[in-house]
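Work Package 3 (structural annotation) set out to generate three-dimensional models for the target panel prioritized at the project kickoff. During this period the team completed the workflow that converts sequence records into discrete structure tokens, so that structures can be stored uniformly alongside our sequence database. As a representative example, we reproduce one entry of 272 residues exactly as it appears in the project archive.
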Amino acid sequence: MSQPSARLYRGRVADQIVADLRGQILSGALPDGARLPSERELAGRYDVSAPTIREAIRVLTAMGLLSTRNGSRTTVTASGDPLLAMSIASVVQFEKVTAADVFGLLGTLNAYAVERAVERASDEDIAGLRAAAEQAAEIGDVESSAAALLNFFVTLSAISHNPLLAALCRFITQIQIGLAVELSKETSEEWGRVPRSLNKARMEIVDAVARRDAATAVQLVREYHNKAVKRVQSSPGAKKLRETDPGLTSVLSSWLSANVGLGNSPDRRSQS
């Protein structure tokens, strides 16, 4: 850990300590898994009281940047996915964003991702995407098939070699698949119908990427997305909920509340 980047001025001293530590975490000076010095050591470095240090640590813990456990030193938990998930979930819930708007954004992101993948993916990347498509075609129980479907689209966004784009696609895909599973809880057959019917379409996307045909790949991704969303929204569960919740905002908010939180990023959970 480096020394404080600047002298602390009068005012909200704890806020300045938060800003300084946050900067060190985001810059990598305090990497993921690193242990912070003790409260006493930090108090000495910043020339403040222990309660001020504890306040700063509480704020950084609430941000998801630190983890504190009884009997052990505070550690850095710098992972982009949980931070992004919490931020997007907060906007979606606060602004009452509809499921259709979330799905629409994902369609645009996936189209951009496949366009970049055509340009940047290596032959090895494409082989990985093909393997993911083949795995997704093997329909099993809800949990395993949802995971395989998620893996295909996570792989597609990853081979765009754009970390921000990949992170956005990863989380919003988790939302879409999570809601699809939630809306088909009454019958597993309803869940399996959607991914199974689009097996061929996923392979066509892979083939277009392999041919480096960006225009066709983008068109196929958009068509796939529109079909998938239409089938999810026409499921019995979705139709029933829309009678009282037209935008499916309540079920979306409920899913986010259950799956997104500190130490509770959906990529670490089952989608069921």
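DSSP finds 13 helices and two strands in the chain.
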